[in-house]
Amino acid sequence: MSIFPRFAKTPEPPYYAVIFSSTLQDGGFAQVAEKIVKLASQQLGFLGVESVRGTDGFGITVSYWTSEEAVSAWKANVEHLAAQEKGKQEWYEHYELRVAKVERAYAKASP
Amino acid sequence: MSIFPRFAKTPEPPYYAVIFSSTLQDGGFAQVAEKIVKLASQQLGFLGVESVRGTDGFGITVSYWTSEEAVSAWKANVEHLAAQEKGKQEWYEHYELRVAKVERAYAKASP
To answer: Is residue A18 within 8 Å of residue A65, measured between CB atoms?
Structure first.
């Protein structure tokens, strides 16, 4: 995820968040995940992404989107559909994906 | 966060998610974070939590709540208020906190 800053720069709410928690199958695929995030970033309505994976293989990626329509369009993206299928079959041991509308936000930014 | 399973067991949407992304000041405080999560888990309306911090110090914690009221009550919890103040002053270099209403959810569970 190194092409993105660690914190997403998001506008005033409302906007959407896709919260993706996962554990990998053996023989992970960090490079593929990076490719998918890059693909997402070229999608209309993409606002940013925050992502971290621990040494135990559990990871959380949150992508931010302007609207529900932008989330749905991303879900239906052809290259992303292929990745979703592979993800289900091969890459992930377990995942939870939640689509949520951000209503409020607070921050303490670095100086 | 070892007292919790890695994946939160959440009900059918709608429910609420508090997405907390952060980087620590020098001299972190993993034990304090664990204490706060434990405190949250005793709060009315707490559904679960998912949390991961990378080796570079960037972390994401998502807590799940039954309702907006439950999130607000947690925000106003006296012990938590003290922690929020400390967090702002001492613990975190940078954080972004987003309150979001989960509208849809999908999963692939481990066998």
So the answer is: yes
